[in-house]
Each structure stands twice: as C-alpha cells, then as structure tokens.
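Renewal narrative, Specific Aim 1. Our central claim is that a sequence can be written position by position from structural information alone. The example that follows is taken directly from our test logs and has not been curated for this report. It begins with the structure tokens describing the chain, in the order in which they were read.
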C-alpha cells in the first residue's frame, strides 16, 4: 500500500479531552477519530489493527471448539424481563421503542438472547456441550465517557457462552476458555494477568478477570509477589492475625464533645490522636433493613464483601432519617456503642475484634467516645466479625501471609461461571440418557476487542509514539522512501514491497513528497513494527536501513537490497 493512496491523518497536538497516553496516541496517530463523546470512528489504520485483534480472538475461539454466530444488537425487552434484568440493569442500558411502541434495548451483553436461542435449538444431552460466540458492537450509556475506547458508549466485544450438562462439565469448559484467553492476550503482545474477581449476584460463582497492568488502569489489583495471588480490590481478602493487638489495660470510656468535627480527619485533628485509633462506622440499608458496620478509621468499607456477607440483594447507605432513628445521631457521630435501636445488627471488621482504646461516634450529635473496648463495650456476635475492608498495600496475603502490593490494571477480558441463573429463568433444559429433564449449566466469556486494542498501546509506547507488536501493527513494515523522484530508489522500494507481500507481510510505502524528518516522525508516531529507509544516498553506500520500532536509533542495520526481505522476515519472527 502506498501512503499517498490511503487516508492517514497524524496530529501534532494531543486531544484536549485525553487524560492517558494511549488515548492521546490513538487520536494523534490517526487510529480513531472522535465523532462525539464516547463515540469513535475507526480510520483505515485503526480498522486494520482492530481486524487483526479480531482475527486472533476468532482463531483461538475456533481452536477451543467454540462456534461463531451473530445475534441482533437490538434486543426485545421481553427477553430481559424473563430474567428481571430489564429493571435491574440500571441507567447504563440504552432503551428505546419502535414505531409500534415495542420496547427494546441496544445490547450491553447477550446472556438472555443466547439462552433463548439455545433453549429452542438444544433438546438432548447429545447436543452438549456447545459454546457459541459472537464479535459484536455493544452499548453502554456511560455518564462520563472517557479514556478513549476504554470507557466509550459503543464498543466491540467478543462475547461467548457455554452450555454444559452439569457443573463438572462446565468447569472443564471454563478452564478451556481461561487458557484460550491466555493465548489470545499473549498473541496480541500483551502481558495480561488473570485475577480473581467477585461473582456478583451469582453467589459463589467462580470468575477471573484478565488485566493488563498499566499505571493508567482504572482498576486496583491486589498482588502477592510471594505466591502469585492476584485478586481485584472488590474480591481481595487478607489474612488477619491480631493476637498482638491487646497489649495493655483498658481505660473507662469517656464522652468528649467534638462540635462540627465529623470526618475522621477532623476528629483526629481535634483530639490530637492518630486516624488509626479511630473507628469509622456507617449505617447501610440491606434489602431495606438497617445494619451498622464499623471498620478501622484509616480503611474503607468494601461494600461488595459486606453485601456478600449479608446475602443481600441490594445494599445502599441508609437515608438520613433512618440513620437518626436507629442510632440517635447523624452520620459522622454514629458508633457501635449503644445505638438507639437495641435490635440493630452491628458488624465489625475482624481487625477490631478485641480492639480497645478506640474512638467512635457517641450516637449523639456533636460527641465522640474515647477508650472504646470492643469486647467490653460493643454488642457484636462472634460471627459478625469478618473482613469488611478494601484491601490495601501491606495487608497480609490470604494465601502465604506475605505483604501484598496494589497495582493498577485495565480489564480486557473475563471468564465467568454462570451456573443455572439464566437457564432456570428461560427453562432451558435437555433430556439426559434416561430421558430425564435437566437444566443446562452455563458459562460466559468476554473479550473487550476495542479495549484490547487500546490496552496494547497503553502497554507499548514511548515518548515518540506507539510501538506496535508485529501481530497487531496496522502494517508490519513501513518503507520510508526518501527519494520518490529517483528511479533507482523507487525500483528498490517496489521490489522490496513485492518481496515482503509475497511472504505474507503487510507493508506501507511512504511515497509522499515530504522531508525525511517528517516521514520518520510519522513512522515513529504510528509505530509500525519495522521501519525501512530506502534512499539514493543509502543505496550508494551499500543498502537500505532496517530498524525495529522497539529498538534504539543506534541499532540500525544496513542491508543489501536483495537481502532486505529475508532480514525483515527474521526480525518479525524473532
Ligand atoms: Zn501470597
């Protein structure tokens, strides 16, 4: 392909709304162009890379035995009502009506659609297992689209769904997909880490997220260098050993006036005590019933763990009036010692078991209490001490006890055991060999295809631009033709282009009438894996210059024109 025959727009300046490097480079290198907030057009270069990511995903899915289909983006509301998700998906789902007032959604995912399909096609155990997948545009009505393709309103996703006869068979399928995912991300040139995640509404469901480690990542991940334990912050547990925490006598509790000091920081400053001595107490409404939870003052409540512990369907901070009614005070002055409602269930983080000398709210506006001793002053049942905080750096790894580190990650894929949540709702059953009806067991598997494309850039770039891995580079080779008016140089460039294409390597020839500096800058910005410089001067000195984008400028090789194609092939394979 000649540069002059394609459509490439590179930009000198960063887009104003871009906060992270990959977003800036996507736009500056002419990979995508913004249409409106959260909506992007894939320009010719971007389309080439996107298709390469798709091809890798498709190839690994096919090899893993999955079957490709494509289902409508426009999904009738009835499907979503069958599982109750029409009402629970929340404002992120795009809903619309057709001219006959029939409601529908622009699919954010397709569990309902695919379960409805399988129910009507599969009837016998002989047809199982089956895994179906599609690569399809998905929609999310983001409040605040940002980070380019990372959090956009429309995105390309591979969503796969497996159907098995029982949980044991579903487990085999799950790990088969897990390993396919490892291969997909490796082939895209990504270092992606499988991370344990929370099963959400699905109870104890097993699920792993695949994260690309990057400082710009939106998600926190707890990592253990010692044993390799990795979990997202919602899920990450910690080993709690607080045997050493009780090393002194307890003093009598003392009420102190703390007017207008509500936050831990304010009260801590007011009383001149370390934030770690404080207890943070919040009142939640779990399925409509109030519950109080206390955690150390320097930690945050993990609502996912709390919801899971309570087995609640909904969990939200209690309303102002409810807090006042059950505790006797406004939020900011509440605590676990004698709340107004004596029947209020109180939970506390495991690290507070036996803790003493703490400061809590007094359940009286404008007051706190000092010297709180949890075993003496707080009425909590043994079982209601548990892990209720968000993991933090330095916590003990739940597996080996070594301190964990917190890293940032970009989620690019997820594998999930769904059990029978959807097949129960749709009554998707099969007949076993004794002709008994059994419910099909499901799994689901997503890859953010467009997000993966951007994650590659976030993980692989430098100050000059993108550094594409060969597998997903828009063109693997860019020939910078410095003298497009010199017949000898043009002849060498044309011959090399043909030789590379014959080897199945894709090439773009920069044949523009531009200065060498402009061509080099653009080649570096777009980040083609290999750069070849063909010019009259170089040819007079014996050859063409070949360099990998990932290499330092000093690494340039001078190669005789007739050997150049083999040399490049070696570098790309290498
Ligand atoms: Zn560990």
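The sequence written for that structure reads:
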């Amino acid at each position: 392909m000649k540069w002059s025959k394609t459509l490439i727009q590179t930009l000198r300046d960063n887009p104003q709304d871009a906060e992270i490097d990959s977003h800036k480079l996507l736009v500056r290198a002419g990979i995508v162009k913004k249409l409106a907030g959260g909506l992007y057009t894939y320009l010719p270069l971007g389309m080439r890379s996107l298709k390469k990511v798709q091809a890798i995903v498709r190839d690994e899915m096919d090899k893993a035995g999955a079957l490709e289909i494509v289902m409508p983006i426009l999904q009738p509301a009835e499907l979503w009502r069958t599982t109750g998700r029409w009402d629970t998906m929340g404002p992120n789902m795009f809903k619309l009506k057709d001219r006959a007032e029939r409601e529908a959604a622009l699919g954010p995912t397709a569990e309902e659609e695919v379960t409805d399909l399988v129910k009507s096609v599969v009837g016998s155990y002989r047809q199982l297992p089956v895994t179906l997948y599609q690569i399809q545009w998905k929609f999310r009505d983001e409040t605040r689209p940002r980070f380019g393709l990372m959090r956009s309103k429309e995105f390309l996703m591979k969503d796969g769904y497996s159907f098995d006869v029982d949980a044991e068979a579903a487990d085999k399928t799950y790990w088969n997909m897990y390993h396919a995912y490892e291969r997909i991300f490796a082939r895209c040139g990504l270092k992606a880490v499988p991370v344990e995640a929370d099963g959400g509404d699905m109870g104890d469901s097993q699920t792993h997220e695949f994260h690309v480690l990057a400082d710009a990542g939106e998600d926190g991940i707890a990592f253990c260098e010692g044993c390799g334990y990795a979990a997202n912050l919602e899920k990450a547990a910690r080993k709690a050993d607080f045997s050493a925490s009780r090393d002194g006598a307890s003093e009598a509790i003392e009420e102190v006036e703390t007017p207008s000091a509500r936050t831990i920081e304010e009260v801590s400053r007011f009383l001149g005590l370390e934030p770690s001595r404080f207890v943070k107490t919040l009142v939640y409404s779990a399925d409509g019933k109030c519950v109080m939870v206390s955690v150390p003052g320097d930690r945050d409540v993990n609502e996912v763990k709390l919801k899971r512990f309570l087995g609640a369907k909904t969990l939200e901070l209690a309303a102002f009036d409810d807090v006042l009614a059950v505790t006797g005070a406004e939020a900011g002055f509440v605590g676990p010692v004698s709340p107004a409602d004596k029947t209020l269930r109180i939970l506390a983080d495991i690290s507070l078991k036996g803790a003493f000398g703490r400061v809590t709210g007094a359940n009286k506006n404008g007051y706190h209490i000092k010297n709180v001793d949890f075993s003496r002053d707080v009425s909590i049942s043994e079982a209601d001490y548990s892990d209720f905080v968000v993991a933090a750096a330095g916590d003990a790894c739940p597996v080996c006890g070594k301190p964990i580190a917190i890293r940032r990650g970009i989620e690019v894929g997820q594998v999930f055991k769904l059990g029978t949540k959807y097949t129960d709702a749709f009554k998707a059953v099969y007949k076993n060999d004794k002709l008994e009806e059994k419910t099909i067991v499901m799994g689901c598997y997503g890859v953010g295809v467009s997000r993966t494309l951007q994650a590659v850039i976030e993980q692989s770039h430098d100050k000059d631009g993108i550094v594409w891995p060969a597998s997903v580079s828009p063109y693997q080779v860019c020939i910078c033709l410095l003298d497009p008016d010199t017949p000898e140089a043009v002849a060498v460039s044309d011959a090399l282009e043909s030789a590379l294409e014959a080897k199945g390597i894709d090439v773009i020839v920069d044949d523009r009438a531009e200065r060498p500096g402009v061509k080099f800058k653009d080649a570096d910005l777009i980040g083609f894996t290999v750069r070849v410089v063909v010019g009259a001067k170089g040819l007079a000195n014996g050859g063409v210059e070949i360099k990998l984008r990932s290499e330092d400028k000093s690494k340039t090789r001078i190669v005789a024109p007739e050997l150049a194609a083999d040399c490049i092939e070696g570098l790309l394979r290498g």
